[in-house]
Amino acid sequence: MKRLKTILLIVLSSCLLMAFSSISRKFRKQVSVVELPTKPLVIIVDTPTIEMKKVVIAKNTHKDFLEAIGFKESGNRYDIVNRYGYMGRYQFGKRTLRGLGFKQSKEEFLNSPAVQEEAMYALLKQNKRSLRKYIIKYEGEIVNGVLVTESGLLAAAHLGGAGSVKKWFRTGKVRKDGNGVKITTYMTKFSGYKLLVP
Fold first, then answer.
1. Based on the number of CB atoms within 10 Å of its own CB, is 124 exposed (0-12), middle (13-18) or buried (19 or more)?
2. pTM for this model (two decimals)
């Protein structure tokens, strides 16, 4: 009888051990499902690309444009007259000034930076009005091998007149000033400025 109890106890212990072992395995499987991965998670995001026809980067301000063109024209000197009679910081001719409504004498004009700045603003406005359709149509495009920007066109018009810029668009003919400087040189040199001209 004692022996039978021992055998029964061994069998019962074995059954309990097997049952616990089975439960333990199931529990471990469940735990392994919720374990965090040991490798870093990689997420790949597909970003769409946007294509643009016209790209114009405004690199400088209106003030920077005036400084740059003033430096090119006269070294930013208000009191200078060149050998052709062009005057001041922006090298205005008498005919251009009269056309803009400025009637100061040569001395008055040379001694008044405020009048010279006002004349330059008036000329930029006039040239923009004259070239508006070309600016709207071609800004950011390459025309005759030159990137077209508003500031570049207005600088070229300052150098050779709005008519010469229009002619360049129509025929590709490049006008030069008295010193042999091409309007296309101004288009490139003064390209990409953000102007405050209505």
1. buried
2. 0.68
| CB-CB neighbours of 178 under 10 Å | 9
Q: How far apart are CA 139 and CA 161, in angstroms?
A: 19
Count of residues in the chain: 198
Question: What's 39's DSSP letter?
Answer: S
Q: Which neighbouring-strand residues pair with 60?
A: 193
Q: Which residues of 42-62 are buried (b: 16+ CB within 10 A; e: fewer)?
A: eeeeeeeeeeeeeebeeeeee
- List pLDDT tens digits, range 98-142: 999 999 999 999 999 999 999 999 999 999 999 999 999 999 999
Residues 160 and 20: their CA atoms lie apart, in Å, by 98
How many other β-carbons are positioned within 10 Å of the β-carbon of residue 188? 16
**Residue 140 CB contacts under 8 Å (≥ 6 apart), including other chains:** 53, 54, 55, 56, 147, 148, 149
